[in-house]
C-alpha cells in the first residue's frame, strides 16, 4: 500500500478580533459531525478549516478524504449515501463554484450533504482575486437548490452546524453553512 | 505515435464483464455505458448516472469506502473519465481494495455527435491511473487481453483500472430508469435492507 507523505505545514498567521470562542468552533463542529454520524469528510484544505481537518483525521470513526477539487467531494457524497454513509464537505468559498454542476446531481437524486464553507472576500480581504467567487458563493449555491445558512458569530457556529446537519439528513438535501471571514480570521499577507 | 484501431465491440464487452457479477455493485457513467450496463441486465444494484459528468469514479469511491466488503465496479466512458482526471489521484491516495474502474474507451463523445476525445490522440488513461497509484492498471485491445482482465475486475485487490478500447460503432440505446430518487432508493434498499429508510 502506498504510504502518504505528510509535510509539516506552518499556517499563515491569522488575526482574530473574537474571544476564545473563535478558536473553539472547530472543536464544536467536529462534535456536531460525530453526533450526526458523518463518516466521510471530503476537503480541499483551507487555513480556516485546518483545525477541523486535523480533528477529523484523528477521529477513527471518520475518514478525511483529500480532494484535488471540491466537486469530487460532492460526487463522493452520492456514492457514500448509496452505500449508507453520511458525508460532509469542507471547503473555502473560492471552491464553491467548482461544485455547482455536481450539486445538480445532489438535488436531482435527493442526496443529503452538509457543506461547511469558510468565507473569504468579506472582512478586510487582502486578495482581490478572492472577492468575486466569495460574493457569488451564496447566490450560486442557492441557485442550485442548496439551503444556505450564513453564520457570523463564533458562538453561533456550533448550533448552526448542528441544525444545518439535522436539516440536511432529516430532509434529504444539501445545506451549506457559510462561516464568516470575521469568525475564521482574516489572512495576513504582510 | 501511430494510432492503434480498436476492434472490440462495446455491448459484448460489458456483457462479458457483468455475466458473472455476483453481488457486485455497479456505477454506470452517463450515456453509452449506461445503455451497455442496462443491456447486460437491469439490477437494483446498478446506479445509472444521467448527469454529473466527471464524477462517476468518485461516486464509486464513496460507495467503495461505505461498503468495504462489497465489490464496486465503475463502468464509464473516456469522456467522463477525462473530465474527472483528478479523481484518479484522489482514489490512488485512498487505495480502496474493493474498487475497479473500467473505462469503455471508444475515443469519442458518444452523446454529442461522436467527436474525438483526447484518447483518440494518444492520451493514456491507464498510464495516468498507474502514476496515480492504482494497484493494477492497463489497457485492453483484444479479446484475449480482456479475458485476463475480467477476473481482475472482480477479485484483484484494488484499486484496479482498465481502459478497454472499443470501436466507435454505436450500439442501440437501451434506456434504464432515469428518476433520481427511484434509482437511489432501489439501490439502497437492495444494499441496506430496512436501514435504507430509517
Structural write-up:
The complex is a heterodimer of chains A (190) and B (198). Chain A is of the alpha/beta class. Chain A has one domain: Rossmann fold (3-Layer(aba) Sandwich). In chain A, 44% of the residues lie in helices and 20% in strands. In chain A, helix 1 runs parallel beside helix 6 (154-171) and helix 3 runs parallel beside helix 4 (100-109). Chain A starts with 13 loop residues before the first strand and ends with a strand. Chain B has one domain (10-193): Thiamin diphosphate (ThDP)-binding fold, Pyr/PP domains (Rossmann fold). The radius of gyration of chain B is 16 Å and the shape is globular. The longest helix of chain B has 13 residues, at 143-155. In chain B, the strands form two sheets. A six-stranded parallel β-sheet of chain B has the order 2-1-3-4-8-7, sandwiched between helices. A two-stranded antiparallel sheet of chain B has the order 5-6. Chain B is an alpha/beta fold. The chains are: A alpha/beta (190), B alpha/beta (198).
List its traits.
heterodimer, A: alpha/beta, Rossmann fold, 6-stranded parallel sheet, two-stranded antiparallel ribbon, disordered N terminus, B: 198 residues, alpha/beta, two-stranded antiparallel sheet, globular
Amino acid at each position: 500500500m502506498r504510504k502518504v507523505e505528510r509535510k509539516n505545514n506552518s499556517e499563515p498567521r491569522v488575526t482574530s478580533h473574537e474571544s476564545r470562542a473563535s478558536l473553539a468552533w472547530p472543536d464544536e463542529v467536529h462534535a456536531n459531525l460525530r453526533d450526526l454520524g458523518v463518516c466521510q469528510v471530503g476537503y480541499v484544505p483551507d487555513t480556516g478549516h485546518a483545525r477541523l481537518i486535523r480533528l477529523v483525521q484523528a477521529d477513527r470513526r471518520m475518514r478525511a478524504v483529500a480532494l484535488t477539487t471540491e466537486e469530487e467531494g460532492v460526487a463522493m457524497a452520492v456514492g457514500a449515501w448509496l452505500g449508507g454513509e453520511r458525508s460532509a464537505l469542507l471547503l473555502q468559498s473560492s471552491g464553491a463554484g467548482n461544485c455547482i454542476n455536481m450539486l445538480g446531481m445532489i438535488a436531482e437524486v435527493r442526496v443529503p450533504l452538509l457543506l461547511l464553507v469558510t468565507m473569504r472576500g468579506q472582512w478586510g480581504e487582502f486578495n482581490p482575486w478572492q472577492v468575486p467567487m466569495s460574493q457569488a458563493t451564496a447566490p450560486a449555491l442557492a441557485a442550485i437548490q442548496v439551503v444556505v445558512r450564513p453564520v457570523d458569530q463564533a458562538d453561533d457556529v456550533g448550533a448552526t452546524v448542528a441544525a444545518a446537519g439535522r436539516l440536511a439528513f432529516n430532509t434529504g438535501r444539501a445545506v451549506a453553512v457559510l462561516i464568516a471571514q470575521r469568525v475564521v480570521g482574516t489572512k495576513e499577507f504582510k | 505515435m501511430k494510432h492503434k484501431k480498436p476492434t472490440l465491440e462495446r455491448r459484448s464487452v460489458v456483457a462479458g464483464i457483468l455475466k458473472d457479477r455476483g453481488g457486485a455493485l455497479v456505477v454506470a457513467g452517463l450515456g453509452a455505458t449506461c445503455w451497455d450496463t442496462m443491456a447486460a441486465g437491469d439490477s437494483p444494484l446498478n446506479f445509472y448516472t444521467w448527469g454529473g459528468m466527471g464524477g462517476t469514479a468518485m461516486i464509486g469511491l464513496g460507495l467503495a469506502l461505505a461498503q468495504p466488503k462489497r465489490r464496486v465496479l465503475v463502468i464509464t466512458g473516456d469522456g467522463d473519465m477525462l473530465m474527472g482526471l483528478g479523481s484518479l489521484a484522489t482514489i490512488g491516495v485512498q487505495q480502496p481494495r474493493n474498487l475497479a474502474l473500467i473505462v469503455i474507451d471508444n475515443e469519442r463523445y458518444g452523446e454529442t455527435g461522436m467527436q474525438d476525445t483526447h484518447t483518440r490522440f494518444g492520451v493514456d488513461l491507464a498510464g495516468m491511473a498507474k502514476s496515480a497509484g492504482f494497484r493494477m492498471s492497463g489497457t485492453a485491445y483484444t479479446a484475449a487481453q480482456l479475458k485476463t482482465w475480467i477476473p481482475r475486475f472482480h477479485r484483484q485487490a484494488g484499486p484496479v483500472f482498465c481502459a478497454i478500447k472499443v470501436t466507435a460503432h454505436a450500439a442501440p440505446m437501451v434506456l434504464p430508469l432515469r428518476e433520481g430518487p427511484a434509482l437511489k432508493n432501489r439501490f439502497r434498499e437492495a444494499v441496506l435492507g430496512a436501514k435504507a429508510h430509517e
